[in-house]
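Researcher: Sequence recovery benchmark, item below. Answer with residues only.
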């Protein structure tokens, strides 16, 4: 069965508004700090690029790439495919994700980066699916909560496609064989 974009869930305008609001919150909280935004590849790239332009305190950016869970999902162990390029000791780290679903990816990344001696470490996501949570993870900045549906667009993919959509949409079966 094929897939089709079935309904627009979050509009371009809502995304813009959400980036402005989260950017304001981060700017307020990180005054005088040594902020580094770490985006989780590839999905968070679109959000990072919008969000960083709404933040008016000095910051640097870096990227990490992780594979899906190795072994069982509940182990929550994600494999690092690409690590960040810099030392984060003493820095104020903010991990930027596209969507939090089970929470396993962010929980693992936070634990891992926390071992490297940052001054602080917080989490930020464009979208949150609170109904899908398997492990507890405190997400400090949330753009928008969305229902438990598979969505694409604004960085989110299905088989690597649809990331470039400027809105978020629900992906559904097309009903054809
Ligand atoms: P978690 O570890 O289950 O929280 O997984 C988060 C990751 O799963 C995200 O970074 C996405 O790459 C992927 N993901 C979760 N839900 C969706 C979705 O609805 N569409 C596309 N990717 C998703
Ligand atoms: Mg992701």
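Model:
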């Amino acid at each position: 069965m094929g897939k089709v974009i079935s309904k627009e869930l979050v509009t371009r305008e809502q995304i813009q508004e959400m980036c402005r609001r989260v950017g304001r919150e981060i700017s307020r909280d990180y005054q005088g700090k040594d902020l580094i935004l770490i985006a989780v590849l590839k999905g968070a790239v679109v959000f990072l690029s919008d969000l960083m332009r709404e933040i008016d305190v000095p910051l640097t950016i870096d990227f990490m790439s992780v594979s899906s869970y190795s072994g069982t999902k509940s182990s929550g162990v994600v494999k690092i495919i690409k690590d960040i390029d810099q030392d984060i000791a003493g820095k104020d780290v903010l991990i930027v994700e596209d969507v939090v679903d089970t929470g396993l990816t962010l929980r693992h990344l936070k634990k891992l980066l926390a071992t490297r001696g940052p001054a602080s470490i917080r989490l930020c996501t464009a979208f949150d699916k609170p109904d899908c949570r398997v492990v507890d993870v405190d997400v400090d900045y949330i753009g928008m909560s969305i229902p438990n549906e598979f969505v694409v667009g604004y960085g989110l993919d299905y088989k690597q496609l649809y990331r470039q959509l400027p809105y978020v949409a629900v992906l559904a079966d097309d009903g054809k064989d």
